[in-house]
Amino acid sequence: MTQIENELQTLKQEAQGAIAQVTTLAQLEQLRIDYFGKKGQLAQILRGMGKLSQEDRPRIGALANEIKEELQERLERSRQDLQAAQIQAQLEAETLDVTMPGVSRPLGRIHPLNGTVDRILDIFVGLGYTVATGPHVETDYYNFEALNTPADHPARDMQDTFYLSDGLLLRTQTSSVQIRYMETHEPPVRIVAPGRVYRRDTVDATHSAVFHQVELLAVDKGLTFGDLKGTIKEFLQQMFGEDLPVRFRASYFPFTEPSAEVDVQWQGKWLEVMGCGMVDPNVLKAVGYDPEVYTGFAAGLGVERFAMVLHKIDDIRRLYNSDLRFLRQF
Known about the structure:
Blueprint: H1 3-21, H2 25-36, H3 41-46, H4 56-94, H5 112-126, E1 130-131, E2 137-139, H6 140-143, E3 168-170, H7 175-184, E4 189-198, E5 210-220, H8 225-240, E6 246-253, E7 256-266, E8 269-279, H9 281-286, E9 295-302, H10 303-311, H11 324-327
Parallel strand pairs: 1-4
Antiparallel strand pairs: 2-3, 4-5, 5-9, 6-7, 7-8, 8-9
Helix pairs in contact: 1-4, 2-4, 5-10
């Protein structure tokens, strides 16, 4: 037996063993290249054919072809087996068991505070008002002074304020939005300003240090307190229904004159939900409006209290506790 015959038989045995251990199509393709490529092991062995005698060349050539065909058949069978296994594994991975229970994905819900704000804004927009917003961090001028509340005014004691550095503060009311809006818009003005406000209140069932307000402002020629009462009554009737008892009580706010508080009957007792009044002439002067020509009315409401009345919630703190047992009811 010649050396080439030995090398061919060795290649056959090694290739058979290697093919039997292949587990992926990529490995199989690499074996094909290693053994039968242009620079593969079979090609390197056959380069020695030129040294054989004329009698041995046909025999060795036939043996090489026989080994090559046998190994290629093994490669093809292995390729088919691997492809079938790959398809079966994919089918098993993608098969759905329709008898198994579905995966529950709970739907998100609108928080009762957000839902109440949306409802309030929908009503006022329907009455012809424009939504306006302003910064949470305010200056003393916009939060107090321009609203007819100078530094020595006793009304400042009514609102315990969170003061920051550089004379800034966290706004205690969304009334500051009114000033900013009027500074850049000429009458007539009809805006509704929702937003979060901050006060040093003691937290209890009806109070929170951080809460939400919606502010209402209308300025035009000839507006009266009757227009204010009519607007508020229309709003409350759309909000709660015509059967909800409502009353107006004389009150005091530095930026309105005359002023009133609005109460609704809730759980057998009167609950204050709004403050309102005619815009003080000094406020109109601060933004460059002529109080001899224009009058206006303003009102502010606490969103939390409206949500409590609307949904019969007994404690304002439930709105901030993130208790899913409570929130899933809305």
